[in-house]
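User: I'm writing a short methods note and want a consistent example. For DUF6011 domain-containing protein, I'll paste the sequence; you return only the structure tokens, no commentary, since I'll be parsing the reply automatically.
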Amino acid sequence: MNAAAATRHTHCLRCGRTLRSAKSRTTGYGPKCAAKVRHSPVDTGDYKPHQIVSARELIEDGAIVPLRSVVFIAVSTDGTETYRTAPMACSCPAGLKGTRCYHQLAARMLLAA
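Assistant:
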């Protein structure tokens, strides 16, 4: 996900405020919005532990960006592909098979924040 981490955001992806610190510009979230996303009340019971870790990493790296109100663009783990993701669907290989992927979990976390 290093390719996504190289992206610099000027405004918070959650609230739209101007980002001032280098860390915030890299992740795409200000400190308060990042805390809200980290502590969002999402039921993770259907997900495996590695999927939860991957979803949090995806958010922290700024590799999931809102496209519309409930649709997101997520970057693949190796940074070579992008997927359209929503809380209940994803265009990644796992999502196309009908299984839950960490992209969907990241979208749920962002929407719950």
